[in-house]
Design goal:
Layout lengths: L2 E6 L3 H12 L4 E7 L2 H11 L3 E5 L7 H11 L5 E6 L7 H6 L4 E4 L4 H12 L4 E2 L1 H9 L8 H4 L7 H11 L4 H8 L3 H15 L4 H10 L13
Helix pairs in contact: 2-3, 8-10, 8-11, 9-10
């Protein structure tokens, strides 16, 4: 089955460039392009894509509000992949909190864009180490959210260990090696964590780890 994609960016050249890159792949269908957040919401509602490539800064409704509306209103499994230059974008954190599953730099090599779309469509999440470091640094300026911290009680000790490892950038295979358990067991624990906390994916597990105070911003080892 092919992956339906809607490409959203207020710069026509950027938007069309991404669309052209994706159209060369037989397993990806670009269903529409949108230049504003409102156009994105309308196109996604009408076409029901699997993945939305979403710019953040757009006139009118920005990518954060559009992401929130799309995920709140969708009655199917749609994933949002944020496109960002990151350095000038101060809103990546808020976009991920809104439910985005991934973020990638706009200068991503063309061959990696399709891979990113496939990863997100398959239920995975992308946390590029080069920008995750900067994202995590932002948590140093935020206080622990007591409401979020209270949800830690829902997790077993093993599940907390896995949340910490994921927040530090470890893959399932690396977590398995660290905790001396099988990769399938790690995957099962991750599914349990998502269910208990009401989270969408691994990206939100990382955010939860820092918001709850389980991991502190200075206590990390990201970049595997």
């Amino acid at each position: 089955m092919s992956i339906g994609v809607v490409v959203v960016d207020d710069q026509a050249l950027v938007r069309r460039g991404f669309a052209m890159i994706l159209r060369v792949h037989d397993d990806i269908r670009v269903l529409a392009e949108a230049g504003t957040g409102l156009e994105a919401v309308e196109a996604v509602s009408r076409l029901r894509p699997d993945v939305v490539l979403m710019d953040i800064r757009m006139p009118g409704m920005d990518g954060i509000e559009a992401t929130s509306r799309i995920l709140r209103e969708a009655d199917w499994d749609v994933r949002v992949l944020i496109l960002t230059t990151f350095d000038p974008d101060e809103y990546v954190y808020e976009a991920l909190r809104a439910g985005a599953s991934a973020f990638v730099l706009k200068d991503i090599p063309p061959e990696q864009l399709a891979t990113a779309v496939r990863t997100v469509a398959g239920g995975g999440a992308l946390l590029a180490p080069s920008i995750t470091r900067r994202l995590v640094d932002r948590f140093a300026e935020r206080r622990v959210n007591t409401a979020v911290a209270g949800r830690l009680e829902r997790l077993t000790e093993r599940e907390r260990e896995i949340v910490v490892a994921a927040a530090r950038g470890a893959s399932n295979a690396e977590i398995a090696a660290q905790l001396f358990i099988g990769p399938a067991t790690v995957k099962s624990h991750v599914s349990s964590i998502l269910g208990k906390l009401g989270l969408r994916d691994r990206v939100q597990i990382v955010i939860f780890a820092y918001e709850s105070g389980l991991v502190e911003a200075g206590d990390r080892d990201i970049g595997h």
